[in-house]
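Blackboard transcription, Thursday session:
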Amino acid sequence: MSGSGRGLLLWAFLLAVSTVACGTADERRDAADAATTRFEAAVRDGDAVAMCRALAPGTRTEVELSGEATCAESVLGEELPYAGAVRTVDVFGRQARVVLQHDTVFLSQFPEGWKVVAAGCRPQHAQPYRCTVKGS
Amino acid sequence: MTAKRRRFVRDNGLTLAFGMAFLLALTGQAFAGHAEFNNELAADGLAPIGLAAYLASSEFAVDVTENWQSEYLQFFLFILGTVWLLQRGSPESKEIDEAGPESDKEQRVGQYARADSPHWARTRDWRQTVYSRSLGLLMGGLFLLSWFAQAVAGSAAYNEQRLRQLQRPMGWGEYVLGADFWSRSLQNWQSELLAVASMAIFSVYLRQRGSPESKPVGTPHGATGVES
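(Written on the board underneath:)
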């Protein structure tokens, strides 16, 4: 292959990588938004099974430990408020923060989709959010 | 291997050997960095990522570019610094009375260019000005590009880490004024500057037989600007 051919191939590769990277950023934002909306619908409807399905494995385990029962039996006792509509979504890599009207939710990407890592989160000055539900 | 290819390898051995070593080291960094990143995710109870996803991640990009920028900064400063700064006895320095950009005659440019001088060295316009500084410009440009890439990738990687720790993400401006960006930059700069200072002074008194980076073994310590 000639030098110019190799150069073209390199630029094509870089273009493909940047296109994929930019393309997936919007897709990830939409997917995190959709997962949060599903979770909040479950909270609003009091659907404990759907709420637990939306939680990350580590967070589900913490809910079970704190309630000393299954996730579905414990999660409604956490008294998560219905947070309303999504206001902003920040996605970096495979982590996301979704700010809603009355709550903030943190999510992480798993093989089966975006899962809620922490919910019922309130900001604290110069410290991590204080969250009602979160993993270990 | 044909005679032509053997000659090409011999004539470009330094670039080829270091280029291949670079690729091997980068590959090793990719595997080790991937394993370490997955260890961190596992500690936070999060899903591991595949190697391809790690290679496209801001985490890998910032780890690569923070080292690239400092290397290019080192060469940029070394190339520019040695125009004016001297070290008596060092093969990395010009002779003590040669500080500065030197005359056109010494640099063989313009009317003093020879038949085999590069074309832009023979010109007497902006092309000579640019070509006379092209090595420093390239190194300085690559430094700025890779430092900017570090700032962009570093901001994304840092925010990913902050979200894992249930902290709010930072804006890019806040990140480049913050501790993570400057810690990453300065820890690389200090090591590169130490290496240059060490090379300048150790090469006064120590020798490496056969290396053009060293004076000939029998050269006195005080001899400056002498390379094998």
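Lecturer's comment: The first strand of chain A starts at residue 86 and ends at 92.
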